[in-house]
Amino acid sequence: MLNQIDALVREARLLRNSDPDRGIALADDAVGRARAALATREDDQARAALASALAVKGHCHRVSSALADAVAACTEACELYALVGDALAESLARSQWGIALVQLGDLSGGLAQMERSLDLSEALGNEEHVCDCLLDIGVVHNMLGNDARAIELYAQAASFFERVGDHYHHATCLSNTAYAHTCWGRRERAAGRDDAALTHFAQAQQHARAAIGLAQRGDDLDFLTLRYVALAEAEREAGELDACLGTLEAQLPITEKLVGKRTQALCLVALAEALIERAADGDDGSALGYLRDADRLCEANSLVETHAGVLRALAKLHETFGRATEALVAYKRFHEVEIRIRAQAAERDVKTIEARLRVEHVQKELDQAKAREQELTALNTRLRDQQFALERLAHVDALTGLANRRAWLESLERAWGEEKRNLYVYLLDLDYFKLINDTYGHTTGDDVLVATAQLVSASVGAHGEAARFGGEEFVAWVRVDADRDAVRLAARILDAVREHRWTDVAPTLTVTASLGVSAGRIHATPFDALSEADQNMYLVKRAGRNRMIGMRLPST
Question: How far is Cα 542 from Cα 186, in angstroms, rounded to an integer?
Fold first, then answer.
């Protein structure tokens, strides 16, 4: 019986990455046989057999994204390994347990299991698994924003992998170090320490290039192309756009050989964005070509989440070229994809919450059953709220409560049809919003968007209608008597954003915005007016931000 269990475990272990579902089936068979053996003979051999079957089952479940099942299996496996005194096997199982918890969003719980795994491996003197643990723990510290600690851990692991000639893991350490330096550089720049930021971006490039060199020694193209991502990101953050474009152009033909097309689509988008940012002669046309290729690729391969970013970038570029019809088509497609993404995200949220509840069922005592029932009730309420929110998406932005892009465009067309002579269009974009997210977190970023929506809406008041146009962009149409009134109202909006007590949202936080203005009377269509407002907003960005520009209107 134990020999049969051992054979099933070995076969499942071989399949854990290539065919995890088949591995789960074999591991389940092994678990059933091991439980039967343990019922008849309660000894360490039977316990060890059950622990091995549970451990490989947990690994297969983690690879297949059945994270709650992975945690349950690894938890029981670790308890059994501790009983029989197999510290190495316990250490390996705790690593899988920790990774599954991190994937579930429980960073502190995952870190605790990884550090326990590290302690066991260090006590055994198993240097290879110690370094595996250091690499995993470094990733979690990077996720927590502890960049210096992450870099320190990666360096410790890299020295071992370099010594033993493990190019794959050595390249992983270097690439992760590059990413940590890039994150650190962003934080330094957000704090106004530009010299320190550039130093980190330079170190990121150095480590990323070394990682690419090591990755090129193997034949794993997926792994190689991700090393290019780390280099291109560091170059772009450093403002070295020509170098960034060169890296992306080297990455693109590699992505074309991959079975999955998401990486290729992301590379095309990154090329387009870098070209738009460089803004040299002909860059806009080349960027449009890349985005169209990415659009076709996403459409053909059902890359829904990637497609949304492609369509948004495509629509904005069409607006820049003054092609209002193409821009509107792209924005409508973007809106349709966003609804699908929100629906899928709601479904994933449900599955994640259910998985966490199952983990709690394994880890908590029975007297917490009442609390879990309350959580299930809250989950049902949340699902109803999400369904209601999805129904409102046709007209209302879910985060800010303002009109969304579609509803606002319809309202602009109606206002335009009534009278365009005294109609003005504003497009406002928050300055350095990505840095706010990187520095303070996306929750704070959402709070900034909500507050900005309230400030813009209150400033516009009865003069017109404001909306969230997408991301950190807001729009409004207003009716006022003269150009000077449009300028005053625009200035009032910028002052409201600039002078708001942002430190109530987060310590040291400041927020400014750039605003483009367009007068309706000089345009043939409302979309032409919107396009001019968008172009003026970009002129503001290039002129230094935190101000407004309006065609044929004075600047402030």
Answer: 20
Q: Contacts by 327-333 with C-beta closer than 8 Å and gap 24+?
A: 327/527, 327/531, 328/409, 328/527, 331/405, 331/406, 331/409, 332/406
Question: Which of 54, 145, 64, 146 has its CA nearest to residue 100?
Answer: 64
Token digits for 517? 């203005």
368 secondary structure, DSSP code: G
504 DSSP 8-state letter = G
Q: Which amino acid is at 149?
A: R
Is the four-CA dihedral 202, 203, 204, 208 of positive or negative sign? positive
Using alpha carbons, select from 286, 296, 232 the residue that is nearest to residue 261: 296
How do 548-550 and 513-519 pair as beta strands? parallel
Q: What is the C-alpha to C-alpha distance for residues 110 and 375, in angstroms, rounded to an integer?
A: 22
- Neighbour tally for 280: CB within 10 Å: 10
Q: How wide is the angle at C-alpha 541 spanned by C-alphas 540 and 543, nearest 5°?
A: 60
**Local mean pLDDT, 10-residue blocks, the chain (556 residues):** 89 89 93 90 89 93 88 92 93 93 90 95 93 94 93 95 93 96 95 95 96 92 92 94 95 91 92 90 90 92 87 87 86 86 70 62 54 69 66 77 92 94 96 94 95 96 94 95 93 95 94 95 94 94 90 47
User: What is the H or E stretch that residue 425 is in?
Assistant: strand 423-430
Residue 417 contacts residue 162 (beta carbons within 8 Å): no
Other beta carbons less than 10 A from residue 144's beta carbon: 13
How far apart are the C-alpha atoms of 466 and 393, rounded to whole Å? 16
User: How many CB atoms neighbour CB 260 within 10 A?
Assistant: 11
Q: Which residues of 7-39 are buried (b: 16+ CB within 10 A; e: fewer)?
A: ebbebbbebbeebbeebbbbbbbbbebbeebbe
Q: Which residues are catalytic, by number?
A: 472
> For the chain, what are the domain ranges?
279-362+369-393, 399-550
Name the CATH superfamily housing domain 399-550.
Reverse transcriptase/Diguanylate cyclase domain (3.30.70.270)
Q: How far apart are CA 56 and CA 324, in angstroms?
A: 56
Radius of gyration of the chain measured on its C-alpha atoms: 27
**Contact, 425 vs 533, CB < 8 A?**
yes
Helix (H, G, I), strand (E, B) or coil at 519: strand
Taking Cα atoms as reference points, which of 139, 77, 69, 79 lies closest to residue 104? 69
User: What's at 258, amino acid-wise?
Assistant: L
pLDDT for res 556: 43
Is 336 in a helix, a strand, or coil?
helix
Residues 437, 103, 122, CA angle at the centre, nearest 5°? 110
Tell me if residue 240 falls in helix, strand or coil: coil
Q: How many CB atoms lie within 10 A of CB 164?
A: 11
Quote the DSSP letter at residue 393: T
179 Cβ neighbours under 8 A, 6+ residues apart: 142, 204, 230, 233
Please give the torsion angle defined by the CA atoms of residues 444, 449, 455 and 456, in that order, rounded to the nearest 10 degrees. 160
The confidence score (pLDDT) of residue 366 equals 40
